[in-house]
Design a protein that fits this description.
The chain is mainly α. The protein has 2 domains: 97 residues, no CATH class; 161 residues. It is built from 8 helices and no strands. The mean pLDDT is 88.
């Protein structure tokens, strides 16, 4: 286990990054600057003071309300800060104080932003996925040691597999069943995880997505045409591979299966 002081610093750093991710999630779909102006209350538009913008702590101190207008602030803001803090700790715990830790953390942060934008708007911004493909390929090779061949095949398999699924679905039904954003996102994951990571990510995302999608349809009493964004499940699958991929794959192939 890593030094508690190091983990604490990682958690604080991660929470601060999570606060920035909230800004990205809110502004990127509208093609707004993520740098300026400063954070504002989404209800009244009042600029948030520095003391009221401390991750998690300010939300608790203000009892989840804007100091200016008194309206409730969504719990999702501190939740994302806590999630990001947790992943920062996990990255340090798994990779230590190596160059791999911040690289993997940055990849996960991109997935967090993608997940919540896809939930809110049913889109995966090209501003994240397209440059992400090249950045992930560079980082995975030069920092994580993934071969160029593995990264290239990951990109082709990731993007190509979902593209063919979407094309086949459209030919059969006449309806778009797979968005282009999902194709680019899995290509980005392939650049970072390699072809093995793509297979694991797609397999686990399909299972998790099917279970959750079915649960949502039953709970909401919708028919089978209910649209459920796939990006969040791809993100979950990619994160599972990062932390548990080798363990789960070993368990699967060591477990007897009925034919």
């Amino acid at each position: 286990m890593s030094n508690p002081a190091v983990l604490f610093f990682a958690a604080v750093f991660g929470a601060c990054i999570g606060s920035f991710l909230n800004v990205c999630i809110h502004r990127i779909p509208g093609k707004e600057s993520i740098v300026s102006p400063g954070s504002k209350c989404p209800k009244c538009g009042q600029t948030i003071r520095a003391l009221d913008n401390i991750p998690v702590i300010s939300f608790i101190f203000l009892m989840g309300k804007c100091r200016n207008c008194g309206r409730k602030i969504s719990f999702r803001y501190p939740a994302i800060e806590l999630i990001t803090a947790g992943f920062a700790v996990c990255c340090v715990e798994k990779y230590g104080l190596s160059a791999a830790a911040p690289v993997v953390f940055a990849f996960i942060c991109a997935l967090i932003v993608v997940t919540f934008i896809d939930i809110d708007h049913r889109i995966i911004p090209d501003a994240i996925s397209l440059p992400g493909i090249f950045i992930c390929a560079f980082a995975s090779h030069f920092i994580l040691g993934l071969s160029i061949f593995a990264a290239a095949t990951g990109i082709l398999l990731g993007g190509g597999s979902l593209y063919l699924v979407g094309l086949f679905y459209r030919l059969i039904t006449g309806i778009d069943g797979m968005g282009g954003g999902d194709v680019k996102l899995l290509a980005m994951c392939g650049a970072f995880l390699g072809w093995k990571g793509v297979v694991f990510t797609l397999f686990s995302a399909s299972i998790i997505g099917s279970v959750i999608g079915l649960a949502i349809m039953i709970a909401s009493k919708k028919d089978m045409k209910l649209a459920v964004p796939f990006g969040p499940f791809l993100s979950i699958g990619a994160v599972l591979y990062l932390f548990f991929g080798d363990l789960l794959i070993s368990w699967y192939f060591s477990t007897p299966h009925m034919l």
